[in-house]
Amino acid sequence: MKIISAHRATLPLLLAPVIFSPLTAMGADEQTLIVSATPQTVSELDTPAAVSVVNGDDMRHAAPRINLSESLGSVPGLQIQNRQNYAQDLQLSMRGFGARSTFGVRGIRMYVDGIPATMPDGQGQTSNIDLSSVESVEVLRGPFSALYGNASGGVININTQTGQQPPTIEASSYYGSYGTWRYGMKATGAMGDGTHAGDVDYTVSTTRFTTKGYRDHSGARKNLANAKLGVRIDDASKLTLIFNSVDMKANDPGGLNYQEWQDNPRQSPRGDQYNTRKTIKQTQAGLRYDRQLSAQDDLSVMMYAGEREMTQYQSIPYQPQLRPSHSGGVIDMQRHYQGIDTRWTHRGELLVPVTFTTGLNYENMSEDRRGYENFLMNNGVPEYGVKGDKRRNERNLMWNVDPYLQTRWQLTQKLSMDAGVRYSSVWFDSNDHYVTPGNGDDSGDASYHKWLPAGAVKYAVTDAWNLYAAAGRGFETPTINELSYRADNQGGLNIGLKPSTNNTYEVGSKTRIGNGLLTAALFRTDTDDEIVVDASSGGRTSYKTPVKPSSGGGSFPRSAVC
């Protein structure tokens, strides 16, 4: 997309004079970014894993601020594809994981300010991320992602800005081809320096995006709102409130066969015929409590809750929907989700300096999923794009309980060891409330349990050059969407799907050169019971567990920290 006009203005709050100031160059003491995509906070250079950090200001520079694909394409090992179809979201693949996803994000664990953007079943999405308020994006690849549970390929951790003095208001607007327009407002500020009781910081942003789209029937609009409020309770503790809301409506132009593409690549024959579209409404809030218990101990508690509504009209002809077991061409879904993560960190000595981080993570999600025919008969002719008779009604529950432990041992001045383990338990339960002649009770349940160990050693050749070796086991359960459909339009849940497991081995080198960081990593991943696409038609995809594959690969990335 070519941006043909852009405008940005930054104004202090209230009636203060208008001030414009250039960006200030970072000093030498600010050139080391701190990575929080691991349970322990360490620098990017000292992390014994493949980690990349992208600065929020760099993401916003001369960019539309619409999709993560604008700025994360340079991260090694991460493929991020903008489908140019806002009904299907971005496609993210990290070292091959997530490539099978027909919509949303699979195989990659995502967080925004500590709140999972990934559901307990492993299905994630990026539609609620407002790039206007992002402070940094951290991408963790390789074995240590296993310590986050149901995420085989890696972790993407997004941190939004924390308000600072002086208070400011920022307005931004971008206009592009095909009726694309994004405009937004952001206010940030603080009272106090954040170190004394009663100090407050805040960041509030709102964004609206609209487009007519390149293809027929591909228009979309999205409204985003974000807020973060931090309150210093006393000298040792802080409370942070986080709020996010997204309201999106997008038409789905669907795919084209080769002949259709040759005739007119902008057409959408099935989108126009079936009026395929998707609407999403999501609201969530989180509360994080951080306290320094002593000079050696820290406590962190994150609680969150949210709800998500989604309605999707698919391009399924009426004839298959006449079968008693068919679930229709309209998906109507409501989800409620919540969770809590409690973490304690202790720094001490056990013959050698050691840091322990232990915690317990609990998440649950309830889903009311209904299906309807996508047509009404009018004088014997189907009229598509409307909600018809009910064909599916079920309540799905999914929850997990994961204790975890991570340790860091400073064996010598140059040699350190990281080791951790997580025991991941995921339960799925479905209750079918649509039982008719020819469509029996498809209720069912499943549970998945796995130990997920990870370990690494790091050797500091010099103060600016580290070598490391790491290994870990990953775990990826079927999502509710993958369990929802069986092949050949059969009714019932696809309970036969197994979780996939993988073992990853990695060696790497990190060298600081001036203000940059040169990294190289070689890895191998062996996967058992990989979930793959079985069939895909009319916007509906079913999955299966085939033979055991094996994949290996290497990456030699280069990244810079400024």
UniProtKB/TrEMBL annotation:
Protein name as catalogued: TonB-dependent siderophore receptor
Start and end residues of each stretch annotated as Disordered: 257-276, 536-562
Gene3D superfamilies: TonB-dependent receptor, beta-barrel domain, TonB-dependent receptor, plug domain
Domain annotation TonB-dependent receptor-like beta-barrel: ranges: 233-541
Pfam families: Plug, TonB_dep_Rec_b-barrel
GO biological process: siderophore transmembrane transport
One GO CC annotation: cell outer membrane
Sequence similarity: Belongs to the TonB-dependent receptor family.
Keyword Transmembrane: yes
UniProt KW keywords: Cell outer membrane, Membrane, Receptor, Signal, TonB box, Transmembrane, Transmembrane beta strand, Transport
Species name: Enterobacter cloacae
UniProt GO molecular function: siderophore uptake transmembrane transporter activity
Endpoints of the signal sequence: 1-27
